[in-house]
Amino acid sequence: MLKDKIKENKPGILLYGITPPKINLSKDEAYQIAKKQLERLENTGIDGLVIYDLQDESARNDEKRTFEFCGTIKPEIYHKEFLKLSYPAVIYKAVGNYTKEEFANFLNTSNNDMLSVFVGASSKNDLLKFNLNEAYKLKKEQGGNVTVGGICIPERHEKKGDEDLRVASKIIKGCEFFITQAVYNIENAKRFLDDYANLGIKKVPIIFTFTPCGSPKTLEFMRWLGISVSKQFEDRLFESDDPLSASVGLSLDMFEFLYKYGRAKGVSVGANVESISTRKVEIEASINLLRGIKNIIQNEKECNLEELIQSASKFYE
Questions:
Q1: 69: pLDDT strictly greater than 50
Q2: Are 184 and 158 spatial neighbours (Cβ–Cβ below 8 Å)?
Q3: What number of other Cβ atoms are within 10 A of residue 135's Cβ?
Q4: Distance CA 193, CA 176 (A)
Q5: Averaged pLDDT of the chain
Q6: Are 90 and 15 in contact (CB under 8 A)?
Q7: Cα gap 158→175, rounded to integer Å
């Protein structure tokens, strides 16, 4: 079970991230989307789903949003009523979208297997009903069944150099695992792992997110979300005859490095694969990426740190 793997700090946790259907769709349309999502995931061997709770995020970015924002079905409702609890799920909760009473009700009505990532404000300019620290405090006071996870952002570590300390602080507040923003910059992720591994705290799983990118429009949206994509990687993608396949191959290489590097440094690394695009080819590519990562986990070979660091050179060729 996913919850057991997290509690036991197991490496190789494999998740697939999905967004619930838009709230303005009919129930029949939402059921059809759920059916297609479950069909795609058959025989992939995932440990569970990540179901996002979307925020507009426009307040943190002066640039126009690449894709129009639209509210979605609440993730816990989508999991229970439409996906029929087919897989264990990590339910994202953008805490600022809820009042204290609404959030308390979510905690009180959660079942024993519930896992949830509490997500704070996307910007200091956001007008919040409830904030992240209050959510952690409420969970601690109420106890309950929810296993809490947090967000980790390697890009922020590059800019501020303190993402490892943020993670440590969240562990103290009750977080038992972390899911990162999508990774397209291996150096940021590696530097975070180095500093996190050196902290004298109990270690919890770090689940890196990977997402295929096959078009300039998707890349634009990734950058709008704050995902770091170096010019070098961009060139490698779009100078290729098949950018989508190139991005899948790049993500597989990055996961393999981070997974083995984490093991060598005493950190349990997993993967969350997602598609932030509605394009069928990119969704299918995300499933191919998922299967490729599963294969890497199943065929793991021991590798020492020196060999791993040397192998990282391929990301800079």
A1: no
A2: no
A3: 26
A4: 16
A5: 87
A6: yes
A7: 22
Per-residue tokens: 2: 């996913």
What Rg do the C-alpha atoms of the chain give, in angstroms?
A: 19
Please enumerate in sequence order all residues whose Cβ is within 8 A of that of 220, keeping only pairs 6 or more positions apart, or say none.
66
Contact between 41 and 16 under an 8 Å Cβ cutoff? The reply is yes
pLDDT digits (tens, 9 = 90+) for 95-105: 988 899 999 99
4-48 pLDDT, tens per residue? 999 999 999 999 999 999 999 999 999 999 999 999 999 999 999
User: What is the pTM for the complete model shown?
Assistant: 0.89
Position 315 pLDDT exceeds 60: no
Asked if 117 and 179 touch (Cβ cutoff 8 Å), the reply is yes
CATH number for 136? 3.20.20.220
d(CA 78, CA 315): 38
- Distance (Å, whole) CA 13 – CA 9: 9
What residues make up the domain containing 111? Answer: 2-315
Measured CA to CA, the distance from residue 146 to residue 15 in angstroms comes to: 18
> pLDDT for 195-207, tens place per residue?
999 999 999 999 9
- Angle of CA points 307, 288, 84, to nearest 5°: 120
Q: How many residues in the chain?
A: 317
Contact between residue 21 and residue 33 where contact means Cβ atoms under 8 Å apart:
yes
Query: With left for phi above 0 and alpha for psi between -120 and 50, is residue 241 left, alpha or beta?
Result: alpha
For 289, residues 6+ apart whose C-beta sits below 8 A from its C-beta are 210, 212, 248, 251, 252, 273
For 29-41, write each residue's pLDDT tens digit. Answer: 999 999 999 999 9
The tally of domains found in the chain comes to 1
CB of 193 closer than 8 Å to CB of 153: no
